[in-house]
Amino acid sequence: MIHKMSHFLVQFGQLYNFFGLLFFNLVPVYNNVRSGAYNSHNLGNVSLKQSGYYALPFDCSTDYKGYFVLFCLDWYLSFTSTSSLIYIDILLAFTVLHIRGHYKILIQVIENFENHLGCNTNKNELCYTAETNHSVYLQLKRIIKHHQLIIKFTNMTSETFGDILFITYGFHLSTLCLLLLQCSQMNTEAILTYVPVTIYILQQLILLSISFESTRSMAERLSTAVYCIPWERMNTRNRRTVLILLRQSQQPLNIKALGMVDVGVTTMAAIIKTTFSYFIMLRTMATEN
């Protein structure tokens, strides 16, 4: 399941990245064709349009050589920038989905606790035998070590990607606001150029937030699964071990942006709400001016 979800993320991200680049960079080409800018007779009267403009020491709007240089530069910069963004998000989603997969494996082992003991157990017995209690102790030890490994990896993920998550959420907040402002022009050029990019940025935010939220919900199921362990049939040592596992399983999944902001659907909703608020404010200011 995790493999299929990871494969889907890569394919979907690459596909949307490809179409986003096409729309963003080919719309200016279409406008140049429609305005006749590629006709050398009209070049003095019509400026060549680009997907991005930069302060360069040569003419890019009325000279074909300068236009071609900037055209290639726009394709290169748009490809590298979008690819870096999408692959960072895919890496984050991969990491979180694999944490979710480990939680799912751990829950499955706990829910089928007696089937993984490696010895025959009689469900009619009130207490385990000494041999079974030894197998139970070894099984509990493996479960606790596996859970400690998940917690350690989760903390490492939060420390490693905390700054990146904070920058990513800040990028989504500011970029979505500006893209919505561009889309609000409601002309053909703005819609074809900026709507695909807006959807692209928004789906990145949604996919990343849902990945974190689904992993958090899976982690919350662990404590419920631990309650289902037949602790009443164990000896005192194993009951104490189950208590340690129960306390450990109640620790919340701790992945935060910059160690402060929880990552999930709640943060995503707050970002979208704030984005629309700033968009309305900027739109009002632009209309008044």
TrEMBL record:
Keywords: Cell membrane, Membrane, Olfaction, Receptor, Sensory transduction, Transducer, Transmembrane, Transmembrane helix. It comes from Glyphodes pyloalis (Lesser mulberry snout moth). It is found in: Cell membrane. GO terms for cellular component: plasma membrane. GO terms for biological process: signal transduction. The lineage of its organism: Eukaryota, Metazoa, Ecdysozoa, Arthropoda, Hexapoda. Signal peptide: none annotated. This is Olfactory receptor. It is a multi-pass membrane protein. The keyword Transmembrane helix applies. The keyword Amino-acid biosynthesis does not apply.
